[in-house]
Design a protein that fits this description.
It is built from 11 helices and 8 strands. It has 253 residues and is α/β, with parallel strands linked by helices. It is globular, with a radius of gyration of 17 Å. It comes from Thermoleptolyngbya sichuanensis A183.
Length: 253
Amino acid sequence: MARIVSIHSFRGGTGKSNTAANLSALLSKHGQRVGVIDTDIQSPGIHVLFGLEPNSMKNTLNDYLWGDCTIAESAYDVTVPDFKTGEGAVYLVPSKSSAEDIARVLREGYDVRLLRSGLQDLVKAYNLDYVLIDTHPGLNEETLLALAMSNLLLLVLRPDQQDFQGTAVVLDLARKLRVPKILMLINRVLASVDVEDLKRQVESIYSNEIGAVLPNCEEMMQLGSSDLFAVRYPDHPLSQEMDRLVRQIVAIG
């Protein structure tokens, strides 16, 4: 049975989509078959990291939710051939990024229950081991559904007081929804910060396990979401820390 992993943050700008995209590529490197669903319909963008142009996306999650295609027809093979192992693969279900389509979502909404059935259909269609859900920041109906469906929640935050307060709300909700496993991921940590001290502080505040501490780096800024960092810089400490997190995710089962 496929494992459902939600990557979520209380605020935007935490690096959530970058994290989801790179973890999916690293999972494929470990021989896993992965689906990635961009449920951040109001502000989509993960397709950019995989090099998908809007005019090349015939079908998207929006089209599935509006009944115009199946979920499998909205998935794109974005596997990096030289980066995968064995049967490893990555399939992305993007959301439309045009102003017209975003406005339609905001105006008309959609039946979020279709996300659950669509996820199951996607797993069957592509024989997936994992589904990574790139959520919309904050809390809304589809976020609640994603958390409720998850076997694992990766809660992304920066070492920032606003993030600290908002994350507490999400963490409390995830516990009430009885998400089986929650790992916190501290992102964009400056080189001057004592990582072990930061981990102790955050674990003390939230009484929750830290999955990874990802360093802030100039190379990520220079890349500007034009590629997958772990593929471009496989030996970088940031990539190595993400790979360590992937090993932990696989070990959880």
